[in-house]
Amino acid sequence: MAHATLDGVLIREREAADLHRLVEILRTTHLRDAYPFRPEAAAPGWLVRHSGPSWVLTVDDVVVGHVALDRSDPQRGAEIVRYFLAPQARGTGGASMLLRHALHHAIPDGRDPWLVVMPHNVAAIAVYESAGFVPDGEGGWTDPDGTWHRVLRYRFSGPVEGQGVVDAPSAPSAPSAGGRPPAGAGPGQVAGRTG
Ligand SMILES: CC(C)(COP(=O)(O)OP(=O)(O)OC[C@H]1O[C@@H](n2cnc3c(N)ncnc32)[C@H](O)[C@@H]1OP(=O)(O)O)[C@@H](O)C(=O)NCCC(=O)NCCS
């Protein structure tokens, strides 16, 4: 459902058959971008460990990107998680398209979508900020060897700037700027992982 297509580019729900290809991409992004941060996370189990919908971006039927929502905490808005693009698909606008798609599904929850990101993921931070995310605190975790890893928390302060995709009629529409609900939980410590 809620498929979107434009010039050979398609956003559709993730299927089990996509996992192998997505893990291949994750191995690359781990080496290149340190995302996921730990090598063992480049695996199907990590990819599907979230409570919410997920989508893939395809170009000419080849999976090149992924994003998901995690709604596991009912007191908070949806968290944007598992967001990545294969290197060959970067710089094309696909990243913003995928992020906007996730936001269009997250915003009707009534609380600000949010995410956490590590400071070294500079391209992701640039995409988040240009999409309308604003800094909302930071936290991190300490490894057993004492190494501190910092993570930045962002919350969405929309509205979503145009969909850039053609959504199915059932897909939620963007809210008006004045109609946004109050912010969710305030700044605070962030758990020791990133989306
Ligand atoms: C995050 C990601 C999906 C973005 O996709 P993308 O195609 O690279 O995104 P775009 O090209 O649309 O935009 C990237 C932005 O980062 C900027 N950027 C890229 N490398 C940068 C760097 N080293 N320093 C500063 N800015 C940088 C680009 O200039 C661009 O900014 P602009 O739109 O203002 O020109 C992709 O880079 C990725 O998969 N990264 C690894 C996974 C990751 O970090 N996920 C986030 C998890 S929280």
Descriptive keywords:
single chain; 195 residues; alpha+beta; Aminopeptidase; three-stranded antiparallel sheet; 4 helices; binds coenzyme A
Question: Can you say what the CATH homologous superfamily is?
Answer: Gcn5-related N-acetyltransferase (GNAT)
**Rg (C-alpha, Å):** 16 Å
Q: How many distinct domains?
A: 1
CATH architecture: 3-Layer(aba) Sandwich
Q: Could you say what the CATH topology is called?
A: Aminopeptidase
The spatial strand order of the largest sheet comes to: 1-2-3-4-5
Percent helix range: 10-25%
Structural class: alpha+beta
Shape: globular
What is the makeup of the main sheet? 5 strands, antiparallel
Mean pLDDT: 84
Number of strands: 8
Give me the number of helical elements. Answer: 4
CATH class: Alpha Beta
The distinct bound ligands, ions and cofactors come out as: coenzyme A
Which strand-content bin applies to the residues? 25-35%
Order of helices and strands: EEHHEEEHEHEE
Low-confidence stretches: 163-192
Q: Termini separation (Å)?
A: 23 Å
Protein architecture, described:
With 195 residues, the chain is an alpha+beta fold. It has one domain: Aminopeptidase (3-Layer(aba) Sandwich). The protein has helices spanning 19-33, 44-47, 94-106, 122-131, and strands spanning 4-6, 9-13, 54-59, 62-70, 79-85, 114-117, 133-142, 148-156. The protein has a five-stranded antiparallel β-sheet with strand order 1-2-3-4-5, sandwiched between helices. A three-stranded antiparallel β-sheet has the order 6-8-7. The model is unreliable at 163-192 (pLDDT under 50). The site of coenzyme A has 20 residues, from helix 1, strand 5, helix 3 and helix 4.
